[in-house]
Every structure is written in C-alpha cells, then in structure tokens.
C-alpha cells in the first residue's frame, strides 16, 4: 500500500466512508432548504431538495458499487431522509402550503417509531433494522410529493388541489406503514424499522 494512502487511512475512521460523508452533507442541506422555504425562495428550496435527493442516490450507489457500506452509514442514511422530509413538511405547513394536521401526523408517526426504538434499546433489546417495502414506498412517495410541491412553487404554479388530494393518501400510507412495522416488530423480536 502507498505510504501516503496509509497515513490518510489512519486519519479517517473506517465508519466515515465517502457515502457516509455525503449523507452528512445531506443533513447540512436540511436547514438550508427550510430557510429557503421560510424566505419564499422556492427555486433555491427546490434546488436544495433536489440536490439532497441526488446525494441520497449517489451515496447508496457508491456504497454498493465500491463496497463502502458501514454501520454508521446504514444508520444515518434513513435518518437523513426523515430529517429532510419532516423538516420540509413542517416548513411547508407553517408557510401554509400543507395542512398542519398532515405535518403533525407525520411528525407523530416518526416520533413514535423513534420512541419505540429508544425504549427497546434502553431495555437492552438488540435491534435489527430491516425496513419493510411499504416503508420504502412511503418514504419515496413523501419525497416525490414534496419535490412536486417545491417544483410547482418554484414555477409559480398553484399547489392547493394537488396538496389537498395527495396529503390524505400519503397520511394513510404513513399510518399503514407504521401499523405494519408495529405488527412485524411484535412478531419478530429485534425487527423494528424506522
């Protein structure tokens, strides 16, 4: 091994892979997107949200393609997605684009899942995170919904009808996802999923 690479390798902990660093950068985008929404800078908000989405695809591809997966990355990646979704939904609800009940429901659902995980860990229960397909569909649908809303606002288009129709469907999907995850957790010890 090249001595230059060896010294660099010693400086960077093995958990801080390139995909994990990209995920950490996605966390940094969250307050920027929220601030853009608060200022009504819809083009900037959409660009930041789109960049976060691209970084999510990129970090996953790099991790799989170059065998750079890590436990830290596997933990942080879905948390970065949730942080982005919850923060943008809250900002859009406070701004008036989304109904407050929708933001409250998503925050409550994710808060309850995190509370269950924290409680299980406090009781010494080993958790194996294996997301269900419906949870992945739920997250993808929420991200697509938010991208459409932000893109429409950036273009100056109205979003009222779309939001009014899509929010209840997404709320139902979020509740169904949480319910199925709870059933799975009850049946399979150590199978909680965020």
TrEMBL record:
Protein name: CDP-diacylglycerol--glycerol-3-phosphate 3-phosphatidyltransferase
One Pfam match: CDP-OH_P_transf
Principal location class: membrane
Bilayer-crossing regions: 21-38, 44-62, 132-155, 161-180
Keyword field contains Cell membrane: no
UniProt KW keywords: Lipid biosynthesis, Lipid metabolism, Membrane, Phospholipid biosynthesis, Phospholipid metabolism, Transferase, Transmembrane, Transmembrane helix
Metal-binding among keywords: no
Reaction(s) catalysed by this chain's protein: a CDP-1,2-diacyl-sn-glycerol + sn-glycerol 3-phosphate = a 1,2-diacyl-sn-glycero-3-phospho-(1'-sn-glycero-3'-phosphate) + CMP + H(+)
Family the entry assigns: Belongs to the CDP-alcohol phosphatidyltransferase class-I family.
This enzyme's EC code(s): 2.7.8.5
Gene name, Swiss-Prot/TrEMBL: pgsA_1
Subcellular location: Membrane
Record pathway: Phospholipid metabolism; phosphatidylglycerol biosynthesis; phosphatidylglycerol from CDP-diacylglycerol: step 1/2; Lipid metabolism
Annotated source species: Methylobacterium crusticola
Topology class, membrane: Multi-pass membrane protein
InterPro entries assigned: CDP-alcohol_PTase-I (IPR050324), CDP-OH_P_trans (IPR000462), CDP-OH_PTrfase_TM_dom (IPR043130), CDP_ALCOHOL_P_TRANSF_CS (IPR048254), Phosphatidylglycerol_P_synth (IPR004570)
Main EC class the enzyme belongs to: transferase
Top-level taxon: Bacteria
């Amino acid at each position: 091994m090249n001595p230059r690479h060896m010294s660099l390798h010693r400086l960077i902990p093995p958990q801080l892979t390139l995909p994990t660093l990209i995920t950490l950068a996605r966390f940094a985008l969250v307050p920027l997107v929220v601030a853009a929404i608060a200022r009504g800078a819809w083009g900037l908000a959409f660009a930041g949200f789109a960049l976060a989405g691209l970084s999510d695809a990129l970090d996953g591809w790099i991790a799989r393609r170059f065998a750079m997966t890590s436990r830290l990355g596997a933990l942080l990646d879905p948390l970065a997605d949730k942080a982005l979704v919850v923060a943008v939904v809250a900002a859009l609800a406070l701004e008036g684009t989304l109904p407050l009940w929708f933001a409250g429901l998503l925050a409550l659902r994710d808060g309850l899942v995190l509370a269950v995980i924290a409680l299980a860990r406090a009781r010494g229960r080993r958790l194996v995170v294996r997301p269900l397909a419906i949870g992945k569909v739920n997250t993808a649908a929420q991200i697509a919904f938010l991208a459409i809303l932000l893109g429409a606002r950036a273009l100056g288009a109205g979003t009222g009808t779309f939001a009014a129709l899509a929010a209840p469907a997404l709320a139902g999907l979020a509740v169904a996802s949480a319910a199925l995850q709870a059933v799975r957790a009850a049946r399979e010890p150590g199978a909680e999923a965020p």
